[in-house]
Amino acid sequence: MTTVKANRQGELVLSKELLEAHGIPEGAEVEITGGRKEIVLRPVEADHPAPEQGTLTIEEFLAKLPRIKGPPVTDEMIREAIDAEAIRKWDEENSR
């Protein structure tokens, strides 16, 4: 793991070795994503820039949902599985 510090301007400087190790050439654009506790850097390929994020219609959204093959799963089945896993973890923690 490599650690860097933000300077007064709020910039992070990554070492040349780190960039080379991850195949990021000088002048390359980097996409930054993440959540509350992480930041993810991904090189943007010059031929394929990151897609613009737009809005979807409900029809487009539904068309992108994966189709699941198999029996339907009910809310009750999900709750039972969650309860069973909680019990298993509880037993595992308390058997140490």
Name the features.
alpha+beta; 96 residues; single chain; 3 helices
Number of strands: 2
Envelope shape: flat
Question: Structural class from helices and strands?
Answer: alpha+beta
How far apart lie the N and C ends?
31 Å
- Give the helix level as a range of percent: 25-40%
Largest sheet: 2 strands, antiparallel
Runs in which pLDDT lies below 50 for 5 or more consecutive residues are none
Strand order of the largest sheet: 1-2
Radius of gyration: 22 Å
Short description:
By secondary structure, the chain is of the alpha+beta class. It contains 3 helices and 2 strands.
Overview of the molecule:
The protein is α+β, with helices and mostly antiparallel strands and 96 residues long. The protein has a domain at 58-94. Helix content is 34%, strand content 10%. A two-stranded antiparallel sheet has the order 1-2. Strand 1 and strand 2 form a beta hairpin. The relative contact order is 0.06.
Secondary structure elements and their pairing?
Elements: H1 16-21, E1 30-34, E2 39-43, H2 58-64, H3 75-94
Antiparallel strand pairs: 1-2
